[in-house]
Write a structure and sequence with these properties.
The structure holds two protein chains of two kinds.
Chain A (H helix, E strand, L loop, with lengths): L2 E3 L4 E5 L4 E3 L2 E3 L5 E8 L6 E7 L7 E2 L2 E6 L4 E6 L8 E9 L6 E3 L3 E6 L1
Parallel strand pairs in A: 2-12
Antiparallel strand pairs in A: 1-4, 3-9, 5-6, 5-10, 7-8, 8-9, 10-11, 10-12
Chain B lengths: L3 E4 L2 E4 L5 E7 L5 E7 L5 E7 L6 E2 L6 E5 L5 E5 L8 E8 L10 E2 L3 E5 L1
Parallel strand pairs in B: 2-11
Antiparallel strand pairs in B: 1-3, 3-8, 4-5, 4-9, 5-6, 7-8, 9-10, 9-11
Classes of the chains: A mainly beta, B mainly beta.
Chain lengths: ~120, ~120
């Protein structure tokens, strides 16, 4: 069974500081993909970053990076130089090789950036 | 540049009424999905369609039916609405390449309240 766990319901970070949002996953698949989405208060789901299970390097996209630790089955999102606009819900999701087109989402982390 | 369009954006129903949520995508993607989002539970997959003419159950299919009318459109039907189906519903679309890094592209959601 595939499962995504996000253990931080809410996080606070000072503006301009870095923050790490945790995500652990459970899968028996050898090939899988991990995705992070941002959901601002307006409600839309915005794709941020992707990490493949066979990728040797941690993914980076601008101020977003993934701390991928395959042995620990964790894929933590790091946001550097936080901005007020980063305040949102953040969801980790996984696609497994044996689940085809199905995605599994975590319960999300609410991030608040403090000025 | 619409991407994924959901209609309606808001709807209030009475228990027992029926309703169809519409979703259309203009990205020529093969796979489409319906999720529901409830507080503290992340996104849960209701149904998905890997390609035109096929549909499969997700995690929470009970009380719902779907139709993949053509490649562009994927509708979700509540035959007899129940208060437990009060939720925010998201439709998404994705390329068919199962193992790629392509994310799902989401619509803006439909807020459904059942009294």
């Amino acid at each position: 069974a595939q499962k995504i766990t996000q253990t931080q319901p809410g996080m606070f970070v000072q503006e301009k500081e870095a923050v790490t949002l945790d995500c652990t996953y459970d899968t028996s698949d050898q090939s899988y993909g991990l995705f992070w989405y941002k959901q601002p208060s307006s409600g839309e789901m915005i794709f941020l970053i992707y990490q493949g299970s066979y990728d040797e390097q941690n993914a980076t996209e601008g101020r977003y990076s993934l701390n991928f630790q395959k042995a620990r089955k964790s894929a933590n999102l790091v946001i550097s130089a936080s901005q007020l606009g980063d305040s949102a819900m953040y969801f980790c999701a996984m696609r497994g090789a044996n689940t085809g087109n199905q995605f599994y989402f975590g319960t999300g982390t609410s991030l608040t950036v403090i000025p | 540049n619409a991407g994924v369009t959901q209609t309606p954006k808001f709807q209030v129903l009475k228990t027992g009424q029926s309703m169809t949520l519409q979703c259309a995508q203009d990205m020529n993607h093969n796979s489409m999905y319906w999720y529901r989002q409830d507080p503290g539970m992340g996104l849960r997959l209701i149904y998905y369609s890997a390609s035109e003419g096929t549909t499969d159950k997700g995690e929470v299919p009970n009380g719902y039916n779907v139709s993949r009318l053509n490649k562009r459109e994927f509708s979700l039907r509540l035959e007899s609405a129940a208060p437990s189906q009060t939720s925010v519903y998201f439709c998404s679309a994705r390329t068919k390449d199962y193992y790629s890094n392509q994310p799902q592209h989401f619509g803006d959601g439909t807020r459904l309240s059942i009294l």
